[in-house]
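hiii, so i know i said id send this last week but things got crazy w the move. better late than never?? heres the sequnce for the chain we talked about at the cafe, plus the structure i predicted for it. fair warning i was half asleep when i ran it
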Amino acid sequence: MKRLGMTLLLMGVFFTAVAQTPVRDAWLSMPDNIIGYLNKNLRQEHLDFVDMKVKSEVRNLFLSQGVMDSLSTHYLSVQLNGITRLQLQVLERRDSLPPVYCLIKTVSAPYSESDITFYDADWSPISHHLGLPVSSHRDSLLHIFTMRPDTMSVERYEEIKDMIDPVGLKISILNDGETLCFEISSPYMIKEEELMIRAIIKQRKYKWDKEVFNEC
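okay and structure toks below
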């Protein structure tokens, strides 16, 4: 009986520690209207399945199956349906200031396009982009995220850039949890066209320094 009591106590300590990780707290405190697909009960259900070490598959409010496929102390990722992925990152700040929540929603149909929003610890939107080159303007995106190879003429470079239409911006969080990867995307028509476009696309990465993002 004494051993059983100790086991239950240790289990309680373990689950309490798990429940208090920053990304779990952010995930559960998120207002329901921010995602739309998942209310708090369904978000909790995702976590429960992860804790049970089974596939975290939950039918969301739009009746599609979503899967939480990554969960760490400060980061989680959920495939909400066949074309939509949600990433949540808790960004720690200096001097014990409240964290910043980074929420990225990426829709891939027929090409990937991401929407990134920052929130304070009360889930109020932050109006600035913390050093990131976020733009919806086609020319600005092409200027930032393409580069002419030394072996390519200026004329050929401009021709290939003209092929990229429409232009999407795909954003992903890398494994270190503090670096964002930016890359433009477009619905390529044929393989040869895709190879040409890939030759001029420049992927850019930005690392969080606990205040803003800096290119790395």
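btw The first strand starts at residue 57 and ends at 59. thought thatd interest u
miss u guys!!
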